[in-house]
Amino acid sequence: xxxxxxxxxxxxxxxxxxxxxxxxxxxxxxxxxxxxxxxxxxxxxxxxxxxxxxxxxxxxxxxxxxxxxxxxxxxxxxxxxxxxxxxxxxxxxxxxxxxxxxxxxxxxxxxxxxxxxxxxxxxxxxxxxxxxxxxxxxxxxxxxxxxxxxxxxxxxxxxxxxxxxxxxxxxxxxxxxxxxxxxxxxxxxxxxxxxxxxxxxxxxxxxxxxxxxxxxxxxxxxxxxxxxxxxxxxxxxxxxxxxxxxxxxxxxxxxxxxxxxxxxxxxxxxxxxxxxxxxxxxxxxxxxxxxxxxxxxxxxxxxxxxxxxxxxxxxxxxxxxxxxxxxxxxxxxxxxxxxxxxxxxxxxxxxxxxxxxxxxxxxxxxxxxxxxxxxxxxxxxxxxxxxxxxxxxxxxxxxxxxxxxxxxxxxxxxxxxxxxxxxxxxxxxxxxxxxxxxxxxxxxxxxxxxxxxxxxxxxxxxxxxxxxx
Amino acid sequence: xxxxxxxxxxxxxxxxxxxxxxxxxxxxxxxxxxxxxxxxxxxxxxxxxxxxxxxxxxxxxxxxxxxxxxxxxxxxxxxxxxxxxxxxxxxxxxxxxxxxxxxxxxxxxxxxxxxxxxxxxxxxxxxxxxxxxxxxxxxxxxxxxxxxxxxxxxxxxxxxxxxxxxxxxxxxxxxxxxxxxxxxxxxxxxxxxxxxxx
Lengths: 469, 198
Hints:
Chain A is α/β, with parallel strands linked by helices. Chain A contains 16 helices and 18 strands.
């Protein structure tokens, strides 16, 4: 049978097939954070067992951490307790731990690639649904629950039925100011938040070939928002160039050996997918969401769809617009906003800060806007400073916070107040996601920047100068 | 952790006819700070169930004493979003043992089965019938029969079969978990690891 990229990686990691049941899948790399791991470690303790391969697990603190004054003790006692639990668990089981203040600390899906933990052809899991990010490297990467975290700690395996395969191909060229985030929001708006449930996605076509590694990470990150367990892109020269010489990347002979495996990682041209979807790059414009799930997105110049044009669920749709306090048919352009959040595992990397800075340069933050700019890691923070972006941000009236998940899920103090509108580069606009009662408009760093300097939803193309072809 | 055995459950049900119920609604992130698995039921559907001042929202179904039972019936695409198993824990801790929908998000479905909550996927038409039966009589009973893999509306006798793989079915019937299985095949895993490419 002609194999897909996904088949090749999955099949090479099956330890055992259970009759009329799941596959026992070997996990190469396991990432752990403070929120979804403590009960798993407790499970090991109750069974009186140790982590089987501690060198295959890496721990960081990110979800439940403050993004200011990280050098001070964490004020919230519950958060402090959870961080302490991770530190102790990591120590007891001899797992590398990059806690608050550590130079390698940051959001789990930002630091994995940064440090060479994320590799092509690997199986990678984490108790976090956005683990799909790592698929950008041609890895099978997906989020798991805490019971499964315990399984991986105990046995380096999980038990999963093999998902069906879907290929999403986008050819052509992207328009001006259309970023990887817009590509992903466009796909989700077409497929809906459950359109890829049960599938593992491969992204293919010219648009993804041309995309940077960080852009690919943004797209794969959002695979879960269309219901897919994960998404992946075949590794190419860009991938190998990105990972070479990072701390945990194989070196010397080990690199050569790995390359012979990595070079086999592509979908055979005659391979058959369970489902295929195709879009044109030219059809995509900068996107923004207007509702309470990531599938409720439109091109920024468009209007909010009428409920009669929505498939099924009119009551759910109306409830969603009521929460947002929007009307059917409203234009998104010109809507006043209160907060801007730049960051998260979706858009908290250096290219995102470059894009944001390029648009706000020489302008001023709007007075009605509170902006939270949160780098994905200390390495991203260092790059922002080194490249002079911090000066640009400061001159425009913006400040930079310290790394973490922050307002993406608002577990820490970074909560958008009830009723306020936030243009956010994160991944979920669910009710209350960014704070009880908060109203989220998901968008790219460019759209976020345009909102930050105008105080309202603004088409970034109006503020940018493009070379004419 | 091994869990309760699941065989046949006969009980009334609580209706939540909303689509795309995500795990942030089931349990908001700010309630994920515990290091032990207890007390999550109190915060199940926290922001739909309580006002900001912690007074109950009367119109929400969990605050309506008319509805009770060990089955939660939700709209299409139930459990989307975050992988937090806390969502399944909250549902279990509140007292539900079965969640019914016409479509489940992947990770949520797996999390439920891993802790002994049975996700039952029925056809969209049958889901409507279930909602109608509860609306007609909130005390109406349903039978979830795992050995037979059937879900029955007792008042009308209408039933539908549901799918579950043999391995998971055995686990749920016996209260076994995957870790028992994995620890049992540890020698095979160790052998596999020696030749793992990465």
